[in-house]
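Example 3.2
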Amino acid sequence: MKNLVWLLFFPGFLCNLNPLRINPDSLVTWNGSCVVIPCQINQYMGALLSNISLLWYHQPFYDTNQSDYLGHLLYYIFTISGMYGTQVQSSPASRLEFVGNLQDNLETKDCSLKISQVRMEDNGIYGVKLFASYNRPVQLNKWFLNATINVAESPPDPKMDLNPKDIQEGWIRVTCFVPYHCPAEPLRLTISGLEKTRLSSQETTISNGMIQTVVNLEMTWEDHGKSLVCSLEEQNGLEISKSTMQLYVKYAPKDVRVIASPGMTIRAGETLSLECTRSSSNPEVYQYLWYKDDQLMFEWLKLKKIEFETEGDQHSGAYRCEAKNSVGSEKSEELRIDVQYAPRDVWLIASPGTSIHEGERLSLKCMLKSSTPEVSEYLWYKDDQVMDEWKNFKKIEFEAETDQHSGIYRCEAKNSFGTQKSEELVIDVQSHLHYSSSLPTSGYQRTTESGGPQSSPASPSTTKSVSSCDGRTLWEEFSFLRELPNQAGKPRTQFIHSCKELTSAVIHLTEKFRKALLQIRERTRPVPNEIKKQ
């Protein structure tokens, strides 16, 4: 029976029947710290164990001659009728402490051993031997189980774990932990390195051979590259060890902008350069998109920088770009490009037309296709002479008079980038001049041979066309003036006129000159038969 009982302890052989349990069975501690080997005694075959004796060994071994486990005995604990008895074999005794509870009525009994002020020589294997009876108190059974303690010269650095591990903007869970097997002498872990306003409250816990602290952290893109620090401290705040983790935060491109060179205002014909920039991006941008007046420009797809020669309204407008990476994208604000140029396609409009009658109202308007910036000045020309009185008027209006307003007109539009003139526009003001063979106007009086006044008001029946005077052409009508001898002190006057086209010089004779002409005509024309008959 003795041999059968010890077979239960060989590795892999009915190990589930061993009431002893050590978990974890590999412990980490460091020089000067403490360690508790967590040991439990469970029921065996469904029965409570009684009359328990425990022996703790350092570096145990199995002696085949004695068919028993032996080693350097550290601690011996036994119970007699529920009373404890202990025998400490190690020196100094103050470094060992039984921290368990072996009362008979406990279904699970605690057989843990604490070692304080750990030394490097404490490294190694520890074994516990259990003597106990069940069902039949007269028969004792024995079991054995071991554990390993690894003693380091200095405390281990805490480790940190992130959830999720792929950090993006938003909330993450940060866990800092370090192996620790001495809950009787608690330590604490503290996470620092970021603003406290974005850290949730921290609480350190010790369980299952691990001391850990957990915080929730709101990450922003500005946290990329910063460091989190986890510190292992004593209760008085003295730092024992620490570890640092550099944060790798993924985020979409930030502060995307369009940079224009040489500027947002440019002269037509100059080369414009537009570059899509961002202040930061993680990972890097892999695609750029361009928009003009909210329309996607496919020809500039994936280009970070674009250049083109500006032409005018075709390239003026609102530009924006969009930068993309594997996390997301961001669009820039609109940048308005103003391509400026001199006025284009200037022309004149005459209303009601280019051929009008004397006395009609003529309207001339200077038109143009486009101008950037707006036209700042208009100039007017008549027969290549600048009309200063019409300066800066886009539209002029006046009552047409034959010789004064007939002629060749042009307008010129100016802005800060240049000027352009319209084509010539010929305005022909046609005369309404009519007169009678006796009197040119109503109310005109002349003296006859008898000296009496005579009034000959004009009437439709006596009115002659300007192209005929008593059956003669105007050339014949005024040809006598060419034949008059020069008067003393008076120059000789000549008139040349075509009956087909009346020039403006004849239409606007002054009243005085017209009267003089009529007086000369009266003295030289033959007396009508009806007068002669008188």
